Amino acid sequence: MSIRSSLLAATLALATLGTAHADGLRPIQAKSIDLGEVSGVAYYTVERDGFHVVTTLAQGETGTPIRVVSVLAPGQSVVLSTSQQPRALEISRAGNEVLVRKTAAVTN
């Protein structure tokens, strides 16, 4: 591989590191969630009225778990965040696919 090809490959690799990355999720496949002091898992099931996204979160190992169920139609999303973190996690439905990606926290 020439030096020019190596530089081009390295440039492309570095450029992709800065872009938003969304992970695809399959039905019943658990996805770990880390929001700093709050963490947990999320998964979804396919139902007649939409995709049921089930998220269970707790603060630390001794915190009381909280379970949230969101029903997503195509084009809808749910954002999970805490007041301590500048980042959030967005779970969205695009057609028949569920995507999970980090995003900026929404502030009011």
Account of the 3D structure:
The chain has 108 residues and is mainly beta. It has one domain. It has 1 helix and 8 strands; from the N terminus they run αββββββββ. The chain has one helix at residues 3-17, and strands at 22-25, 31-35, 38-47, 50-59, 66-72, 77-80, 87-94, 97-104. It has a 4-stranded antiparallel sheet with strand order 1-8-7-6, with no helix packed on it. The chain has a 4-stranded antiparallel sheet with strand order 2-3-4-5, with no helix packed on it. A hairpin with a 2-residue loop joins strand 3 and strand 4. The radius of gyration is 17 Å and the shape is globular. The protein starts with a helix and ends with a strand. The model is unreliable at 1-21 (pLDDT under 50).
List keywords for this structure.
disordered N terminus, four-stranded antiparallel sheet, 108 residues, mainly beta, globular, 8 strands, 14% helix
Q: How much helix, percentage-wise, in residues?
A: 10-25%
Query: What is the quaternary state of this protein?
Result: single chain
Total number of distinct structural domains? 1
Shape: globular
Tell me about the largest β-sheet. 4 strands, antiparallel
| Quantity of strands, as a count | 8
Strand order of the largest sheet: 1-8-7-6
Query: What percentage of amino acids are in beta strands?
Result: over 45%
Number of helices: 1
Signal peptide: 1-22
Keywords: Signal
